Amino acid sequence: MPIFRPKDRLDDMADRNRATFSAAHSRLENGATCGIFPEAGHREERRIRRFRHGSARFIAGALQRLPVRERGLEILPMHLDFERYEGYRTGARITLGPPIAVLDIPGIESDAGSARVVLSQRMRQALLGVAVNLLEGPDYEVHLAICRYLEGASGGRVNRSALDRAAQAITQDPEAARRDFESALSAGFRSPRTTDDFAACGRWDSQGFTGILPHLWRLPAWGIFIATTGWWPRVAQRAAERRVKQVSFRTTFSIPLTMVAVSLSWLVLSLGSAVAWGHPAMAPVVFLLLRLSQHMAMPLEDAWLDRRGENRVQAHADHPFIRQWCRPFA
Asked: Does residue 227 have a pLDDT over 70?
């Protein structure tokens, strides 16, 4: 549901926003779940931005409706990130925090301005508890590289205390941290903003090379997947790099493009098979076969991408930046 801001330059902006809020409140009355993006924007950096008070206003308005109060309203902080930055986005990492207390805020049901401020602060603090919030400015990429290494080493979400200790070490000697990080890039590591090199290094340090043999039985399905639609993510990524200047919006372009292109490819191949075989029933059969092949191929595709990344960074795994700025926090 769209929310309009002054920069949209609409004469009826307030009326449109009221209509959006009303529609969302009606859905809450019927037991639906609403997702809110309280930072009012999107950026490529993994940091929590300053909250706008519109989300608090939306929650306060919902609490003014009797069916919502009777049903109960639970506000959960959620952090969403992809498990890998390259290739197929095969998995998302979702972290949920405990519910945020709301009803004890004075004036929240009457939508008082002070209540909005308190609720916004609570929501931001709750999100900080589940999300990655890295240093800003020139130290951001240094902190991000360490974060990606720790994610690779742990195989999942990084420990927040480890990131805090890394941030403290960086701020104590930022020049040395930046110098070693730039040296790592010169040695062969690619940017942690768009690649999985540092995650691959952390994974290689903790477990060695990712095994391919356990997934070889998936090779026939992987061959079908690669031959039919497995190349679409790479095409979409290259198209995004050419057409979208801001890195943070490239996935916004490439992921929907990949989803639509893969679905259309399956549809065309299914209909073409039905025509070639002269039997309409072949269309759903081929469509399901292609979908099943993709599902079966993904673990092998993931293992292959991980192994390729580990091969790429193995020669640089003992770089001073890894030794001094990454391994101590793993």
From this structure: yes
